[in-house]
Design a protein that fits this description.
By secondary structure, this protein is mainly α. Helices cover 73% and strands 0% of the residues. The longest helix is centred in the last third of the chain and has 27 residues.
Length: 300
């Protein structure tokens, strides 16, 4: 077949790079522009993923694909956006430390709900039954097409991030991040602007989570772990939080190098992939974050 030259691990690795670029760019809009600290990325990602999974696998809809995917993905995005609106309202009255703790607590609440509500989410056993809204004849072709669709979604997010820097609403976001009391004193709706931005970016995180769920086809608690937030934060910090292209560079240098080059092409012992590789990944990402913050705090 014409797809035999493409490795399945490479397709999945590229898919992870693409979705983490999307998460990092959304985090750039939250933290880099408006200075809203968010360590709950995995929470919004998880809400979108599990809402989509439950609606897709547990509800008996009167229609099939592709409407089944479109409706479930739209509802999952809406739920993640509403969660972002509520969490953003809570964060709006907190200082930086409070925002970090509250957003991290929100992600922990999502994990607890996914664990305890096992009659819906499958709990520790997981939730299966997810599939692509199309069939191109082979698993590899389906994966490659899904990579293309995810790339289009992330390209739209990138385009929006690029446009924000060059538009009046974007300049308002930058003004809020630089000096919110001053912007408020000039009559600007700072709180409302921050809430809408946070809700919109959280909804997009939920959509990416739903698309990731389709790619892995089986939802488990490991899919919403703190690793998701760490990868997005490290990519943002390494590349630089002030420019929209910073997260792209940072994710390529972290997630791209480790998840594609190290895991797929280095001759590592097979037994390492069970426990050693995930632990090594988090250790390297954590060390990279510390080094960059110490010696290159504005990123590359």
């Amino acid at each position: 077949m014409f797809l035999d030259w493409i490795d399945s691990f490479l397709i999945f690795g590229l898919f992870e790079v693409v979705v983490f670029i999307g998460l990092a760019v959304l985090l750039h809009l939250q933290l880099g522009l408006t200075r809203i600290a968010n360590l709950g990325v995995a929470g919004f990602w998880g809400i979108g993923m599990y809402t989509f999974g439950v609606l897709y696998a547990k509800v008996d809809w009167p229609f099939g694909e592709p409407w089944l995917f479109l409706v479930c993905a739209a509802l999952a995005t809406l739920v993640a956006g509403l969660a972002g609106l509520v969490v953003g309202w809570i964060l709006s009255d907190l200082d930086l430390d409070g925002q970090l703790v509250a957003s991290l607590g929100f992600a922990a609440v999502v994990t607890v709900l996914a664990t305890t509500e096992s009659h819906l989410t499958g709990g520790a056993r997981g939730l299966g039954g997810l599939g692509f809204p199309y069939d191109l004849g082979s698993v590899k072709a389906n994966d490659l097409a899904w990579l293309g669709l995810a790339s289009v979604v992330v390209a739209v997010i990138l385009w929006y991030g690029w446009r924000v820097h060059r538009s009046p609403p974007g300049r308002l976001l930058i003004a809020i991040g630089s000096n919110e009391p001053l912007a408020r004193s000039l009559g600007k709706p700072t709180v409302r602007t921050k809430l809408w931005l946070f809700a919109g970016t959280s909804a997009a995180m939920g959509l990416l989570g739903a698309m990731y769920g389709v790619m892995v086809r089986f939802l488990e608690l490991a899919n919403i772990s703190v690793e998701i937030t760490l990868a997005a934060v490290v990519g943002l910090v390494v590349g630089g939080s002030l420019q929209v292209w910073g997260p792209v560079l940072g994710v390529f240098l972290t997630v791209g190098l480790f998840d594609i080059v190290v895991q797929s092409y280095l001759p590592l012992p097979k037994e390492w992939f069970v426990q050693a590789i995930p632990v090594l990944r988090e250790a390297i990402f954590g060390l990279t974050l510390i080094v960059v913050l110490l010696f290159k705090p504005l990123g590359l």
